[in-house]
From TrEMBL:
GO terms for molecular function: DNA-binding transcription factor activity; transcription cis-regulatory region binding. Keywords: DNA-binding, Transcription, Transcription regulation. Residues 9-69 form the HTH tetR-type domain. PROSITE patterns: HTH_TETR_2. This is Transcriptional regulator, TetR family domain protein. GO terms for biological process: negative regulation of DNA-templated transcription. Pfam families: TetR_N. InterPro entries: Homeodomain-like_sf, HTH-type_TetR-like_transc_reg, HTH_TetR, Tet_transcr_reg_TetR-rel_C_sf. Residues 32-51 bind DNA.
Length: 208
């Protein structure tokens, strides 16, 4: 008989999917590793082969989400030669897959609301680095636009980028928490895009 081939990555993804479902149902503190193993239809011993502690699970869940986002935003610069277009695409990217993220938002706040737990998992630090990556993307695009004469040189790239990231973070968080109607929310996104684009290019004639 041939030995059974185990796709470890597929098994790991199945565990994370099970963990997301159980965390959403019970919350982090009430969830036991046995609950996740049962949901993933495997023995608890098998689960521990992949994740030694419960704390590793949310870190891996959000790590995958943030890594996927980072890969997408790193591709925007290559996909858009015009920095203003890249900034608009960056705004749109921040609002992709919000329904998926809304599913785990209660888990985020449960962890961030407990300093000891957050210190153990390191979630706030992960999010801080992720937001800083978005901030640096916008700074780079604003500066590129200024160098090309497409964005006013009077604009402070670090200040505007930080303000934009704060707005994006706030809008995304509110959507995930309060589940706005998609059409209403997308109208807000369009209004934000129009305001940002208008502000970036409004004083080009005065840049010199």
């Amino acid at each position: 008989m041939s030995p059974k081939i185990v796709d470890r990555e597929a098994k790991r993804q199945a565990i994370l999917a099970a963990a997301i479902a159980v965390f959403a149902e019970k919350g982090y503190h009430a969830t036991k590793m046995a609950d996740i193993a049962r949901k993933a239809e495997m023995g608890k011993g098998t689960l521990y082969e992949y994740f030694r502690t419960k704390e590793e699970l949310p870190k891996s869940i959000f790590g995958l989400m943030l890594e996927a986002f980072d890969q997408e935003i790193s591709q925007l610069e290559q996909a858009h030669a015009d920095p203003v277009d890249a900034i608009m695409a960056g705004i749109q990217l921040c609002f992709q897959d919000l329904d998926e993220f809304a599913y785990v938002t209660p888990l985020v706040f449960e962890i961030l609301g407990n300093k000891d737990l957050d210190r153990s998992i390191g979630l706030s630090e992960d999010f801080k680095q992720w937001l800083e990556g978005i901030n640096q993307f916008f700074i780079a695009q604003i500066q590129a636009g200024q160098a090309q004469g497409k964005i006013s040189s009077k604009l402070s790239a670090p200040i505007f980028a930080r303000m934009l990231v704060s707005i994006l973070d706030g809008m995304a968080t509110h959507y995930c928490m309060f589940h706005f109607q998609p059409d209403f929310f997308m109208a807000q996104v369009k209004a934000l895009e129009d305001m940002v684009c208008s502000y970036l290019v409004s004083s080009i004639g005065d840049k010199q």
